[in-house]
Specification:
By secondary structure, the chain is mainly β. The chain has a single domain, classed as Tumour Suppressor Smad4, CATH 2.60.200. It contains no helices and 12 strands. The strands form 4 sheets. Strands 10-7-6-3-2-11 form a 6-stranded antiparallel β-sheet, with no helix packed on it.
Length: 106
């Protein structure tokens, strides 16, 4: 894995647009472009999932299944623009639409 660090202002969407995903926790010690970065330990809260009107419940949260292998913050792997997450309860992924473009990791 290699990519730009995810930060609290990054735009992430669930597969059922316009569901917006935001971190429930950020790293308190590391910032990029003036915004706190996010580590693999953070769960993302999803609001506005477009999966409505069916028997399936909409996306509510997302958990990260991959992150940086060489970069950690506060003891946890840093999330990168190519990290993967699984939305619950649907099992679909998150789409990372934008993030800062200054700091990369592997």
């Amino acid at each position: 894995m290699s990519g730009f660090f995810l930060h609290e202002g990054a735009q992430l969407l669930c597969a059922h647009t316009p569901g917006q995903a935001e971190p429930t926790m950020t790293d308190q010690h590391v910032k990029v472009s003036g915004q706190k970065i996010v580590t693999q330990s953070s769960i993302y809260k999803i609001t506005g999932c477009g999966l409505t009107g069916s028997n399936a419940p909409p996306c509510a949260t997302a958990q990260w299944i991959s992150a940086a292998t060489h970069v950690k913050a506060s003891g946890f792997p840093v999330l990168l623009a190519d990290s993967n997450a699984t939305c619950l309860p649907t099992g679909t992924g998150l789409n990372i639409k934008s993030t800062q473009r200054r700091v990369k990791g592997t």
